[in-house]
Amino acid sequence: MAVTDLEATRAMLERLKMPIARERLGDLLEESVREKLAPHGLLDLLLKTEIDAREEKRVSVNLKFSGLPPGMTLESFDFAFQPSVDKNRIESLATCEFIQRKENLLLFGPPGVGKTHIAAGLGIKAIKNGFTVIFVTLDKLIERLKLDEENPQGASGRRHRRAHLVIVDEVGYRPLTQAEANLFFGFVSKRYENSSLIITSNKSVREWSSLFASDEVLAAAVLDRLLHHAYAISISGRSYRLKDKEVMFKD
Fold first, then answer.
1. What are the C-alpha distances in Å from 43 to residues 4, 31, 32, 80?
2. Which helix (H) or strand (E) holds 144?
3. Chain segment 24-54, per-residue pLDDT in tens
4. Which residues of the chain fall below pLDDT 50?
5. Closest CA to 142 of 187, 201, 107, 193
6. Strand partners, 230
7. Among 66, 72, 71, which residue's Cα sits nearest to residue 133?
């Protein structure tokens, strides 16, 4: 292919909004000649290069806007340290079929046992599988819900209303006021059977009434919607954060 032909092809790729394929056209052409690929082989290379680059960018952008904590992948989770966690069950959840079915996941356990790590790791898997994800602490979510009341069309409201999966972390570290509890109930109700939630909490289900201004009826209504289509996992064991200190104390 002559230089002028290459430039014409690059121009067409530019018009088709395929900048990566345009940029790598020469290298891919050389590769196709070297590997003795049929003409459709070069086409496959061009398309795959562009698709892979777009997918990488999509994942990168969605990770950036998700609020997910960095480094908390399922691959980096130490299942050996936390044997109460069923690895097969987590790997099954990592297929993200529960999100497709609009189901929830509740992770219970004391501080430091890996609830947030598992939730974030599943959030990363969800993004890689094409879902939109928002990670937020309960306090931050309440702030956003209050802003929603003031400005229902606000950008922050749209993001956490429309995301396929919202991860609400640190539920239970402080009780909600009656107004805040009502906001959270409204949030859960709107997502019920429409999209998925992952909740991490240091409180068992029996203790949730204390989180909702001691309103047992409201707590029951929230749990009814969360648990109807849900997986619940209780994690026990030692705290990751104290692992190194345990070794120090033993010495």
1. 19, 12, 10, 46
2. helix 138-150
3. 888 888 888 888 888 888 889 889 999 989 9
4. 246-251
5. 187
6. 104
7. 66
